UniProtKB/TrEMBL annotation:
It comes from Actinomadura namibiensis. The lineage of its organism: Bacteria, Bacillati, Actinomycetota, Actinomycetes, Streptosporangiales. It comes from the Bacteria. Keywords: DNA-binding, Transcription, Transcription regulation. PROSITE patterns: HTH_HXLR. GO terms for molecular function: DNA binding. This is DNA-binding HxlR family transcriptional regulator. InterPro entries: HTH_HxlR, WH-like_DNA-bd_sf, WH_DNA-bd_sf. Residues 14-109 form the HTH hxlR-type domain.
Amino acid sequence: MTEPLDPDMFDPVCPSRLVPLRFGDKWAGMVVRCLEGGPRRFSELRVPLRGVTAKALTKSLRGLERDGYVVRNAHGRRVEYALTPLGRSLLGPLNALCEWAEDHWDEMLDAREAADVR
């Protein structure tokens, strides 16, 4: 059994929301990060992704599955999502991108604030 996901995994002020490169959609990188520790049920994924609607999460999971990053496993009525080997290969680049975002957090926020003022 995997440990429960941290509800504050993606705090609203977390740099993960500012990562400039996205694959799939807004939630894809965060879904991959949630699946890093092992298979998860849909309801488990919604805990740290508290801003996602069921429709948007379904769309994101289907897109990740279509692209070969995630596999959907049905065990009777229980459905879990897990990273494929291809999906796991994204973890290194995703870690590097998150580290970059943390290093440039203030610059990105300043740029966004300046653009919003204009």
